[in-house]
Design goal:
homodimer; alpha/beta; 15 helices
Amino acid sequence: MRISAEIVSIGTELLMGQIVDTNAQHLGQLLPELGIEHYHRQTVGDNLERATQALRLALGRSDVVFTIGGLGPTEDDLTRDAVARALGVELEFIPEVAEKLRKLFALRNLAWTDAQNRQAMRPVGATVIENPNGSAPGLLCPSGGKWVICLPGPRGEFVPMVNGPVREFLASLNSETVIHSRVLRICGMGESLVEERLRDIIHGSSPTAATYAKSAEVHLRLTAMGANVAEADLVLDPVELEIRRRLGWHVYGSGETSLEEACLTELEARGQTLGTAESITGGGLGAQITVVAGSGAAFLGALVTYWTPLKTQLLGVPKELLATHGQVSAECAQAMAIGAKSRLGVDVALSTTGNAGPTPDTDGKPVGLVYVGLATPDGAWVEEFKFRSERAETRLRTQRVALTMLYRWLRGQLS
Amino acid sequence: MRISAEIVSIGTELLMGQIVDTNAQHLGQLLPELGIEHYHRQTVGDNLERATQALRLALGRSDVVFTIGGLGPTEDDLTRDAVARALGVELEFIPEVAEKLRKLFALRNLAWTDAQNRQAMRPVGATVIENPNGSAPGLLCPSGGKWVICLPGPRGEFVPMVNGPVREFLASLNSETVIHSRVLRICGMGESLVEERLRDIIHGSSPTAATYAKSAEVHLRLTAMGANVAEADLVLDPVELEIRRRLGWHVYGSGETSLEEACLTELEARGQTLGTAESITGGGLGAQITVVAGSGAAFLGALVTYWTPLKTQLLGVPKELLATHGQVSAECAQAMAIGAKSRLGVDVALSTTGNAGPTPDTDGKPVGLVYVGLATPDGAWVEEFKFRSERAETRLRTQRVALTMLYRWLRGQLS
């Protein structure tokens, strides 16, 4: 008998459309991986009566009920109250949590108000789920063989709590069959070409395979069932091997490995260092690379030359080149990469220049025109892109295609 | 008596988190504008029984029930069936719709299959809502003074149908009042202190006021009803004034204005330029600032010195300072800001250095310790932060507190 779960998202801002419920999405992706059935979701505003009703309905038909949001210190944070009512228990104060909160506020130099004590309340019988990323802890509330799990709304608190203790708890509940997935990460190939090459596998049923198009890459999720992970792996392993045989270097990693991580690992193994020269991305490429913990072993730094004269001053791009070709040009991208390689003293440098919009450049370069440069010990390359996306997405895609270019060079695929 | 509405989103891909429900968001934003109450949302998979139950529950408590999705030609498109069951009526075939579909298919050179006829079915009594952007029409189904409105899932069909005929129909139902909102954006003050200062306003009922905690800032939404927007503004204006009087410089903007935008506008007005020196943020501060279109009017560039020796080379941080205090120190942050101001030739420079984790620095600096520096024509400042968040969130918060520091300086609040 498989366990069923249901999400109750609590927040007027969700109903009003001020935010989209990406937390419910994150949890929705996790549940099938853990073999948990998931048939309903409810969204209610910050209203005690309606939140309580939603919880009662959910508890009547699902084994595990998640609440998302409404755990903060303010008066419209009423999830704790609604859960206590739905379970028919009182709220109690937990002095240790209050003590921790006081210390946290002191550390951050924030003024303490007694309202903060609301975050130290729990329905009688509940266990606290630690929240190292914020003030309100999560709550695990038992109810006659069922569970209500209260999770905080802020994404930076929600995601680590779900991926850590909540995932572990859910896995312990549901130990009979597992649904086990792995994700292969593919770059330098469009989704439809991936599908064409893997048509028979995608139409197969064990494992199931599904592609997801991401910004400039494709993720392929393989899923198999089994009595345990090892048994599911027996189904997945040969299929993964076959996919890797067909797609070759395009499969750059699996699981949570990002493209930047794959590049950094390879650079570190070679003892090579990396830097960037950025215009259109404004520092975003460096920021993306340094998301990886330990990236400092290969990534040294970036020269962000948003203002054109800085391209000459900091990167040595000749003024005449800029006058002739403009800053959004293959020539400029190449000179930027070569300049960064020498000025930062790195072995490999990426550069980005382009027009993210919303208006054409003063010299007429159209919105969406982007050049990415790469300078290496083997020589320098430039590639041109014409994006039709909005400003934010164009900047993000520029970062992705720059990393793809670096990866292709590392795999000997750039010529 | 105000009308209430409820959304039932139908689609297994929504529960599984393969897509987020931006359609419900779009509709959620529209309803308060039209003065329609909106207290619940349900999401169910492609299952006839559960979709029917969800519709019955919704019809029991709401005047208008929207379904989103499940109107296509395939077997898991069962919204029509669920609505007919929930309303207790039969489905009937509409020859004119089928005829239109056949013509559409011929025009597009698409192969016709009889499955397409499913899209020409309606619950008895329903009216068709034309769908010029796709094959399945929408449906308007009356039920004893209430309505079920069936909308297609594909966004390119959904949005025009909602913005056009559906909006018009809803306005005709509810022509008496509008609900009008505005958002005030607050920085440098925690959510509970904001609430304390505005307790009477938050407890008031016209306008209603609600706070939302964001990464290092707080948003306050004021909402008023009126016969029209101008009348609602008459309620909102004096309250906004009073809030601004009480919170002073902490209110940095309203609506969609971001903190970086507020800073850039002020810098541009003063004719001052901005740059950054980044270590822990890896370029993310520059990237965040350049999210703003036109940021180049004030923001010139960044020196990202992730590797310690680059702090000396590019920013002139003395080697002895680094040997004595380490790179995660107030002294280093200050020297980085001063170095960036001079090397980039800007009027104002922000710097970031810290340990985002996951492990302590080689010189023992703990995870979460962050210094932010600011160099200006008036002098230089440094602030220390001890974050307890994860790596990604710590980097993001560092960016936010750096911008807050710049904003405070611009408002004369840094001493």
